Amino acid sequence: MKIREVRPEKHNPEQHLTYKNAVLITFAGNFILAILKSFLAWLTGSSAIFSDAANSISDTFYSILMGLGLHLSQRPADQSHPQGHSRFEPFVSLFISSAMGFAGITAIWQSFDRFLAGTVTTHLGLPTLVLIGAALLKIGMYRIVWRLGTRVNSPAIKASARDNLVDVLTTVTALAGVWGANLIHPYFDPALGIVIGLWILRSAWQTATENIGYLAGRGASPELIENINKIALETPGVKDVHRIIADYVGPKVRVDMHIEVDGDVPLKNVHTIVELLKEKIETIPDIDLVFIHAEPYQEAED
Questions:
Q1: Of residues 14 and 238, which shows the higher confidence score?
Q2: Which fold has domain 222-296?
Q3: Three-class SS state of 239
Q4: CA dist 131 to 6, 49, 60, 83, 263, Å?
Q5: pTM score, two decimals?
Q6: What is the pLDDT at residue 200?
Q7: What's the rounded mean pLDDT across residues 265-291?
Q8: Would the CATH topology of 13-216 be identical to that of 222-296?
């Protein structure tokens, strides 16, 4: 019998379509906003709007990276990657966080430069209209992209959705900067530009640490482990569970567990018990693969 060296995988056209839609929505929305905000920043000279525009430009670039990463992560397993290419997704997410970090640093630098060079006030009409429209668009993008990311349990798509939500806050802050510069003091604008930059850096840090955890083998949550244990103990034929090791290998969890079954049960029946349990656990959205070791049950000594 030929030894299988590559994991079997099933083609999921619905998942591919979901990834494609998420990437297209993210890129199109960010590209449109990057153009509008860049023009508005050039027209008004507002530091807060410039910071928000820098954020949208970085979002556009990371949309392209996200599309590339999701495409690579969906490639089937082969000899070079026998367990599949899913690790590409959190790896590309690190590039996304780097682009976000660069945008945050650029925004802070420009705002400090505006402090030193002097401030300006702008007309409120066009900036108000554009920024309110941008915030509403980002709210819509967040709702749609988060729903798509949840459907396929994709950390990259969920990270993009969270970034859309952060963008709503940065856009509202930019609008507050424009109004504050006119109604309170001109320095209000670059001050909120710095706030936006710091907010972007915070979001970049959260995205980076989450995906480093996926790549470094971060452990699964206690709630997930308890759920796995409960499913096992409710499976007919399983007498006890004495080991569950669950950690992230890429964006999903792989489980190594030891169960105990009646030692007098025929091997064929033990195999049936193991396959049934494996199938039940792998229906959990966060789970990728499950490895189960069956051992003879031993009564606990008093």
A1: 238
A2: Alpha-Beta Plaits (3.30.70)
A3: strand
A4: 50, 9, 17, 45, 69
A5: 0.66
A6: 77
A7: 90
A8: no
